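Contributing new records

If you add data, match the layout below exactly. Sequence lines come first and carry their own label; structure lines follow with theirs. Keep one chain per record. Anything else will be rejected by the validation script.
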Amino acid sequence: MSITVAGLGPTDLRDFDKSIIDNKFKIFARTRFHNAIEELSKEYEILSFDYIYESLDTTLKVEEEIARILVEKSKTDDILYLVPGSPFSFEKSVEILLKNTKINLINNKSTLDLILEKLEYVSFGIDIINSKDFFRYNIDFNKDLLIYEVDNEYILEEIIIDLSEIMDPSTRFSIIKDAGLDTEEIYTDYLSNYNRVISPNHQTSLFIYKNEDNNGDFSSLLETTSILRSPDGCPWDNIQDYESLKSHLLEETYEAISAIENEDFENLKEELGDLLYLICLYSEIASELGDFNIFDLINDVNIKLISRHPNVFRNNLDKNENILENYDNIKYSKKGINSYTDRLKSFENMPSVMWAYDIIDKTKKIDFYFDDEKEIIAKIDEEYKEVLDALNDRTRLQEELGDLIFSIIILLYYYDLDPEITIKKANVKFIKRFKKMEEIANLSVIEFQKLGKVRLNELWNHSKNI
C-alpha cells in the first residue's frame, strides 16, 4: 500500500488536476476549510483531520498525529492525502512522513507564492508559522513574517496586540483573506492604525513586513555592540576588558536595585538595559579572546534552567514534588559539590553579608536552626557580652564582632528581612536626620563643620523629634 500527498493549490479546483484521483485511493484532507475540498466532496468521500485540531493544543502535536494515522491507514489502503497549497510549504505532517516512510508527492502552487503575488512584494527572507503556534519571542525581526490560518477575530487581534508591544508602531502589515478567489480581501496598514476591516476565516493570513527601523531585536543589540568594539567604533568600548568592566557591572546593578526600591520603573527599564549591554559587551570580549560567545551563554543558561526544572519540562514527574530541594540537588551535582559543607562554601565570593544569609538559609533546610526568636535574642545577648570581654584584644574583638553580626543576621533571616536592604535603610535614615541637622545649623551664624561635638549631638537629638 502507498501514500500519495498532493497539493490542492492556494485557491480552488482551477489549480488542481482531478485526474490524479484514482478509485483505489482512500482520500484524506488536512482540513475541509478549502474551496477545492468543498467542490471535491461533492464527488468523493473525503475524511478530514479537523477534529484533531480541536483535541490537541499545538500544531506540532496535530501534525504528528496526522502522520501517525496516515502511516497506520496505509498498511491496508492506498492513501491520497490532500493539503492546501503546496505539500512543500507549511506542511509539517509531510515533513514527518518524508522522514519516516516512502511517499509520492504531487506539487502545486503554494499559498505563500500567491500571497506575495497579490501583495506585489519581493521578500528576501520569511518566517512562516501557524497562528496557533505564534509566540512573540520566536520572531526574527530581520525577516518578513507570515502567520497563516488566522481563522478568527480573537486570534487575529491577540497577535496584533502582541506585535504592537514588541515592534515599532510604524511596522506595516497586510491581512489577506481568500487570496485568489472572487471573495478576496486585502487590508494593509501600520500596526498603530489597525482596525477591524476584515473578518477572518480559515483562508486568512497575516503578513508582517520587515521594518528596517526596528531596533527591538536582540540581534540588533549584538550588532551595535560589535560595531562599538570594532577598530572604527567607540574608543571607550574598545579599551574595556574583563577587569575594567567589573566596577561598571556593580554600579549598574546597584542603580537597578535603587530604581526598584524607588518604584521608578522607567528608570529600571534603562538600568536593566545598561546591564544587558554590559552582558553583551562581556560576551563580545570573550568571543574575541576565544573564551565563549553570547550564544554559548544563552545555550548554557537555557539548558541549565530546563535541567533544573524537571517538574516543568518533563511530563512524567510529579508537579507537587519538593521543587526547591530538587533544584538544589541538580545544581550542586552539576558543579561537583557533594558535601553539605561545600554547599555552604559555594557563596564565598559574594559579599560577606549575603554569604552569611545564604549559610543560614542552607543550614535551616537541614533543621540546624533556632526554635524561636527568643533563642536568637539570647544568642545575640551572649555574643554582645563576649564583645565587651574582648575590647582589649583587637584580634579577639574582630572575631567576637563577627559572631555578633552573624547572630544579628540570623534574626533578620528569622523575620525575612534582607540585611543589605536593612542596612541601606539605616544609612538613608541617618542621612535624612543629618540633613535636618545641617538645615537647622544653617540658620545660625556658626559654620556647620565648626559647631563641635556637644552642639552637634544636641542638633542630632533635636532632628530625631522633627
